[in-house]
Amino acid sequence: MNRLSLKIVCTFLIATLLGACYKTATQTEKIQQERQISTEANPTSGWTQTSYTYGIQTPWDQPQSNRYSYSAGEHHFWIYAGDACQFEGCTTGPRSELRMNNNYTSGKHQFEGDVYIVSGSAGTDIMQVFGGATNATAIMLKIHAASSGTIKRYDNETLMTNAYNKWIHVNVQHDADNGKIYVYLNNALKGTYADRGDATHYFKCGVYNISGTRSETRWKNIKYWKNGPVGQ
Protein backbone atom coordinates (compact mmCIF):
# COMPACT_ATOMS: atom_id res chain seq x y z
CA MET A 1 0.00 0.00 0.00
CA ASN A 2 1.47 3.34 -1.05
CA ARG A 3 1.57 6.41 1.20
CA LEU A 4 -1.45 8.04 -0.44
CA SER A 5 -3.61 4.97 0.05
CA LEU A 6 -2.44 4.59 3.65
CA LYS A 7 -3.27 8.24 4.36
CA ILE A 8 -6.78 7.83 2.93
CA VAL A 9 -7.43 4.71 5.04
CA CYS A 10 -6.15 6.41 8.23
CA THR A 11 -8.29 9.48 7.61
CA PHE A 12 -11.37 7.29 7.13
CA LEU A 13 -10.71 5.36 10.34
CA ILE A 14 -10.19 8.53 12.40
CA ALA A 15 -13.40 10.11 11.07
CA THR A 16 -15.35 6.92 11.81
CA LEU A 17 -14.03 6.72 15.37
CA LEU A 18 -14.70 10.40 16.06
CA GLY A 19 -18.22 10.08 14.68
CA ALA A 20 -18.92 7.11 16.91
CA CYS A 21 -17.63 8.96 19.97
CA TYR A 22 -19.72 12.02 19.15
CA LYS A 23 -22.81 9.90 18.66
CA THR A 24 -22.25 8.10 21.96
CA ALA A 25 -21.71 11.35 23.84
CA THR A 26 -24.80 12.90 22.29
CA GLN A 27 -26.92 9.87 23.17
CA THR A 28 -25.61 9.91 26.75
CA GLU A 29 -26.44 13.61 27.14
CA LYS A 30 -29.93 13.00 25.76
CA ILE A 31 -30.55 10.15 28.23
CA GLN A 32 -29.33 12.30 31.12
CA GLN A 33 -31.61 15.15 30.05
CA GLU A 34 -34.59 12.79 29.76
CA ARG A 35 -33.87 11.41 33.23
CA GLN A 36 -33.65 14.94 34.64
CA ILE A 37 -36.94 15.93 33.04
CA SER A 38 -38.65 12.76 34.25
CA THR A 39 -37.63 13.42 37.87
CA GLU A 40 -39.07 16.94 37.94
CA ALA A 41 -42.30 17.30 39.86
CA ASN A 42 -45.42 19.06 38.63
CA PRO A 43 -46.73 20.52 41.91
CA THR A 44 -49.97 21.88 40.42
CA SER A 45 -51.03 18.69 38.62
CA GLY A 46 -54.53 17.73 39.77
CA TRP A 47 -55.11 21.07 41.51
CA THR A 48 -57.74 23.69 40.69
CA GLN A 49 -56.54 27.23 40.02
CA THR A 50 -58.60 29.69 42.04
CA SER A 51 -59.03 33.44 41.69
CA TYR A 52 -57.99 35.71 44.55
CA THR A 53 -57.74 39.31 45.60
CA TYR A 54 -54.90 40.87 47.54
CA GLY A 55 -53.69 43.89 49.47
CA ILE A 56 -50.25 45.48 49.67
CA GLN A 57 -48.65 46.21 53.06
CA THR A 58 -45.85 48.80 53.26
CA PRO A 59 -44.42 51.14 55.95
CA TRP A 60 -47.25 53.25 57.31
CA ASP A 61 -45.33 56.56 57.42
CA GLN A 62 -44.64 56.98 53.69
CA PRO A 63 -46.40 56.57 50.34
CA GLN A 64 -46.77 52.99 49.13
CA SER A 65 -44.91 53.88 45.92
CA ASN A 66 -41.75 54.43 47.97
CA ARG A 67 -41.54 50.69 48.73
CA TYR A 68 -43.67 48.92 46.11
CA SER A 69 -44.32 49.06 42.37
CA TYR A 70 -46.12 46.98 39.77
CA SER A 71 -45.33 46.97 36.06
CA ALA A 72 -45.48 44.51 33.16
CA GLY A 73 -46.75 41.72 35.39
CA GLU A 74 -44.04 42.11 38.04
CA HIS A 75 -44.50 43.11 41.67
CA HIS A 76 -41.41 44.86 43.10
CA PHE A 77 -41.01 44.97 46.88
CA TRP A 78 -38.13 46.65 48.77
CA ILE A 79 -37.35 47.83 52.28
CA TYR A 80 -34.48 49.56 54.08
CA ALA A 81 -33.07 49.07 57.55
CA GLY A 82 -34.93 51.36 59.92
CA ASP A 83 -38.21 51.34 57.97
CA ALA A 84 -41.45 51.38 59.95
CA CYS A 85 -43.91 48.47 59.99
CA GLN A 86 -47.29 48.52 58.23
CA PHE A 87 -49.39 50.51 60.68
CA GLU A 88 -48.73 53.11 63.34
CA GLY A 89 -47.97 51.59 66.71
CA CYS A 90 -47.07 48.10 65.46
CA THR A 91 -43.91 46.45 66.76
CA THR A 92 -43.07 44.01 63.96
CA GLY A 93 -40.26 44.53 61.44
CA PRO A 94 -40.43 46.54 58.22
CA ARG A 95 -42.27 44.97 55.33
CA SER A 96 -43.39 45.42 51.76
CA GLU A 97 -45.64 42.45 51.04
CA LEU A 98 -48.56 41.14 49.02
CA ARG A 99 -51.18 39.72 51.37
CA MET A 100 -53.40 37.25 49.52
CA ASN A 101 -57.02 37.36 50.72
CA ASN A 102 -57.42 33.58 50.86
CA ASN A 103 -58.14 32.97 54.55
CA TYR A 104 -58.66 29.27 55.32
CA THR A 105 -58.66 26.89 58.29
CA SER A 106 -58.94 23.52 56.51
CA GLY A 107 -58.42 21.86 53.13
CA LYS A 108 -55.49 21.83 50.72
CA HIS A 109 -54.09 25.13 49.41
CA GLN A 110 -51.12 26.00 47.23
CA PHE A 111 -49.13 29.15 46.49
CA GLU A 112 -47.23 29.43 43.20
CA GLY A 113 -45.00 32.18 41.84
CA ASP A 114 -41.63 33.17 40.42
CA VAL A 115 -39.25 35.18 42.60
CA TYR A 116 -36.13 37.18 41.80
CA ILE A 117 -34.07 37.98 44.90
CA VAL A 118 -31.79 40.98 44.52
CA SER A 119 -28.27 40.45 45.87
CA GLY A 120 -27.65 41.98 49.28
CA SER A 121 -31.08 41.02 50.61
CA ALA A 122 -30.52 39.33 53.97
CA GLY A 123 -32.41 38.35 57.10
CA THR A 124 -35.58 38.76 55.06
CA ASP A 125 -38.66 36.57 54.74
CA ILE A 126 -39.64 36.35 51.08
CA MET A 127 -42.75 34.14 51.34
CA GLN A 128 -44.86 32.94 54.24
CA VAL A 129 -47.93 30.93 55.15
CA PHE A 130 -49.40 32.99 57.97
CA GLY A 131 -51.09 31.44 60.97
CA GLY A 132 -50.10 28.91 63.60
CA ALA A 133 -50.97 27.79 67.12
CA THR A 134 -47.45 27.82 68.55
CA ASN A 135 -46.13 30.66 66.36
CA ALA A 136 -47.53 33.47 64.26
CA THR A 137 -46.68 31.67 61.02
CA ALA A 138 -46.92 28.14 59.65
CA ILE A 139 -43.76 28.58 57.57
CA MET A 140 -41.47 31.31 56.27
CA LEU A 141 -38.96 31.13 53.41
CA LYS A 142 -36.06 33.37 54.38
CA ILE A 143 -33.10 34.68 52.38
CA HIS A 144 -29.67 34.76 54.02
CA ALA A 145 -26.49 36.31 52.61
CA ALA A 146 -24.26 33.22 52.76
CA SER A 147 -23.28 31.30 49.59
CA SER A 148 -24.49 34.02 47.19
CA GLY A 149 -27.96 33.93 48.71
CA THR A 150 -29.25 30.99 50.74
CA ILE A 151 -32.97 30.27 51.07
CA LYS A 152 -33.85 28.57 54.35
CA ARG A 153 -36.93 27.58 56.28
CA TYR A 154 -36.71 30.36 58.85
CA ASP A 155 -33.06 30.16 60.05
CA ASN A 156 -33.02 26.38 59.92
CA GLU A 157 -33.02 23.98 56.95
CA THR A 158 -31.22 25.09 53.79
CA LEU A 159 -33.47 24.83 50.73
CA MET A 160 -31.27 26.48 48.07
CA THR A 161 -27.91 28.26 47.69
CA ASN A 162 -26.77 30.67 44.95
CA ALA A 163 -30.26 32.14 44.95
CA TYR A 164 -29.41 35.78 44.18
CA ASN A 165 -30.22 37.47 40.87
CA LYS A 166 -32.09 34.70 39.09
CA TRP A 167 -35.73 33.69 38.67
CA ILE A 168 -36.75 30.83 40.96
CA HIS A 169 -40.05 28.99 40.67
CA VAL A 170 -41.76 28.57 44.04
CA ASN A 171 -44.60 26.24 45.04
CA VAL A 172 -45.78 25.88 48.64
CA GLN A 173 -48.53 23.34 49.34
CA HIS A 174 -50.39 23.38 52.66
CA ASP A 175 -52.45 20.40 53.75
CA ALA A 176 -54.22 22.12 56.63
CA ASP A 177 -56.27 19.01 57.48
CA ASN A 178 -53.13 16.99 58.24
CA GLY A 179 -50.85 19.82 59.36
CA LYS A 180 -48.21 19.44 56.62
CA ILE A 181 -46.43 21.90 54.33
CA TYR A 182 -44.50 20.92 51.18
CA VAL A 183 -41.95 23.32 49.66
CA TYR A 184 -40.87 23.08 46.02
CA LEU A 185 -38.19 25.19 44.34
CA ASN A 186 -37.82 24.92 40.57
CA ASN A 187 -40.24 21.94 40.63
CA ALA A 188 -38.11 19.92 43.07
CA LEU A 189 -39.51 18.99 46.49
CA LYS A 190 -37.11 20.53 49.01
CA GLY A 191 -38.80 19.62 52.28
CA THR A 192 -41.92 18.60 54.20
CA TYR A 193 -42.68 20.34 57.48
CA ALA A 194 -45.26 20.46 60.25
CA ASP A 195 -47.41 23.60 60.01
CA ARG A 196 -47.21 24.62 63.70
CA GLY A 197 -50.88 24.12 64.51
CA ASP A 198 -54.45 24.97 63.54
CA ALA A 199 -55.20 28.63 62.85
CA THR A 200 -56.58 30.94 60.21
CA HIS A 201 -54.02 30.84 57.40
CA TYR A 202 -53.24 32.91 54.30
CA PHE A 203 -50.34 33.46 51.88
CA LYS A 204 -47.93 36.40 51.72
CA CYS A 205 -44.89 37.23 49.59
CA GLY A 206 -42.48 40.16 49.22
CA VAL A 207 -39.95 41.27 51.84
CA TYR A 208 -40.37 41.24 55.62
CA ASN A 209 -37.61 41.94 58.17
CA ILE A 210 -34.03 42.84 57.32
CA SER A 211 -30.51 42.36 58.68
CA GLY A 212 -28.64 44.22 55.95
CA THR A 213 -29.12 47.66 54.44
CA ARG A 214 -31.64 46.99 51.68
CA SER A 215 -33.73 43.95 50.72
CA GLU A 216 -35.67 43.52 47.47
CA THR A 217 -37.64 40.79 45.73
CA ARG A 218 -39.59 40.75 42.50
CA TRP A 219 -42.53 38.40 42.04
CA LYS A 220 -44.52 37.41 38.98
CA ASN A 221 -46.96 34.68 37.88
CA ILE A 222 -48.49 34.50 41.36
CA LYS A 223 -51.28 31.91 41.46
CA TYR A 224 -53.54 30.29 44.03
CA TRP A 225 -54.52 26.61 43.79
CA LYS A 226 -56.90 24.44 45.84
CA ASN A 227 -57.67 20.79 46.57
CA GLY A 228 -55.06 18.63 44.90
CA PRO A 229 -52.52 15.89 45.74
CA VAL A 230 -49.67 16.96 48.03
CA GLY A 231 -46.03 15.93 48.09
CA GLN A 232 -45.96 14.46 44.57
Explain the overall architecture.
The structure is a single chain. The chain folds into two domains: about 1-40; about 50-225, Jelly Rolls, CATH 2.60.120. Helix content is about 15%, strand content about 40%. The protein contains one helix and 15 strands, in the order αβββββββββββββββ. The strands form two sheets. Strands 1, 3, 4, 6, 11, 12, 13 and 15 form an eight-stranded antiparallel beta sheet that branches. It has a seven-stranded antiparallel beta sheet with strand order 2-5-14-7-8-9-10, with no helix packed on it. The radius of gyration is 24 Å and the shape is globular. It starts with a helix and ends in a 6-residue tail after the last strand.
Structural class: alpha+beta
Distance between the termini: 66 Å
Q: Describe the global form.
A: globular
Characterize the main sheet.
8 strands, antiparallel
Q: Gyration radius, to the nearest Å?
A: 24 Å
Order of helices and strands: HEEEEEEEEEEEEEEE
Number of distinct helices: 1
CATH architecture of the largest domain: Sandwich
- The low-confidence parts are 3-26, 28-38
Please state the average pLDDT score: 88
CATH class of the largest domain: Mainly Beta
Strand content: 35-45%
User: How many domain regions?
Assistant: 2
Organism: Niastella soli
GO molecular function, one term: lyase activity
InterPro entries: Alginate_lyase_2, ConA-like_dom_sf
Signal peptide: 1-25
